[in-house]
Amino acid sequence: MRDLNRFKGCLLGGAVGDALGYPIEFFGEQEIYSEFGNPGVSRYKLNDGKALISDGTQMTLFTAIGLLYGQTRMMMQGGGTSFCEYIRLAYLDWLDTQAPEYSDERARISWLVNFPTFFQRRAPGRTCISALVSGGHGTLEKPVNCSKGCGGVMRVAPIGLYYCDSRWTLEQTDLIGAQAAAITHGHELGYIPAAALAHIIRILASSEKPDIHFAVLDMLKVIPNLFPYTENINVFLSLIKKAIHLSQKDMRDLDAIHALGEGWVGEETLAIAIYCALKYPKDFEKAVTVAVNHGGDSDSTGSVTGNILGAALGLDAIPAYYLNNLEFREIIEEVAEDLYHDCRITEYGHYKDPVWRSKYIYIDYAPQMREKEALR
């Protein structure tokens, strides 16, 4: 069952958790309490009236663009390269937005680069930058490095959404998630959590009655079969099982998070997010605020928690005060709508969509065009 409310909820939920956690990403817990009181931040720290998103949401949007550009090429030409190759090209477009100077020498596939506001560095991960500067050619078979940082898992939610009711199997979707992470993160624990998150999001986005606990347990059954010979699969499984166990205990949330880690690496980010989502499966605000109020990688753990809760509960479960000042809210919603509707044009078909062509064929979609569309 494809539900636009949950597509929007997943991407906007991730952005909300990201924006809540971004200002305190490098704060210790006492710093958080000193500035925001105990138990910590629960409302945005605004910058010129906006709740700023980090590199996590930026790269999530470029992941979505890579998928949509690739599908459009397939629909228009009947073939093409792998979806992960298009995702890689989209990440190179993102890299251009992080550079001090912008060059027109390379052809781009992402209409987001037409928006000057995207050209802002938001504490990008050094692993992502260095891997992409070298071309971003990492694969599962030929790792580009040995990083297990959380930069791989934090950006793959669109993959689970996009394939939620497709002919692609769950296992194929999981592998695309892993491959997308492996572009920049070569350690097993850099890409296995990405496969796991793609699995969880797909289960939630395609279920008539989403159940986070069921989605996590289903992931635990499938992921070991996808990566049977990896050295660290049991490390990953043990940590996720620990998160499930802790979510069922009567204990302080911060103590549980401390037992899982700080979220700087992929398996810890996902474990913390799973703990928060299982502990508060019907309460978006409580889950994301718990996910960010710790001394670790607050924006990444908040973002993945928001992705999971948003996919399960939908946009309607996100309080309005988290949406009103969210940076790029309109663009995030627009990308969610594109993922939901997908490409409907073909090379010889009669269906017309000039906006889609502008976005995913000509790559000339610009801010003033969005304003015109809004007035139609």
Overall description:
With 376 residues, the chain is mostly helical. The longest helix has 23 residues, at 55-77. Helices cover 59% and strands 0% of the residues. The chain is globular and about 60 Å long. Helix 1 (4-21) runs parallel beside helix 13 (284-292), helix 1 packs antiparallel against helix 14 (298-313) and helix 7 (170-182) runs antiparallel to helix 8. The protein has one domain (4-375): ADP-ribosylation/Crystallin J1 (ADP-ribosylglycohydrolase fold). The chain is built from 18 helices and no strands. The two termini are 30 Å apart. It has helices at residues 4-21, 29-36, 55-77, 83-98, 126-133, 157-162, 170-182, 188-206, 212-226, 233-247, 253-260, 266-279, 284-292, 298-313, 320-323, 329-341, 354-360, 367-375.
> Percent range for helical residues?
55-70%
Spans of at least 5 consecutive residues with low confidence: none
* Fraction in beta strands: under 5%
Overall body shape = globular
Number of strands: 0
Rg (C-alpha, Å): 19 Å
Report the total helices. 18
CATH homologous superfamily grouping: ADP-ribosylation/Crystallin J1
Q: In CATH terms, what is the architecture?
A: Orthogonal Bundle
Q: What distance separates the N and C termini?
A: 30 Å
What is the count of structural domains?
A: 1
Which structural class matches the secondary elements?
mainly alpha
Assembly annotation: single chain
Q: Which H/E pattern describes the elements?
A: HHHHHHHHHHHHHHHHHH
- CATH top level label: Mainly Alpha
CATH topology: ADP-ribosylglycohydrolase fold
The largest β sheet comes out as: none
Mean pLDDT: 94
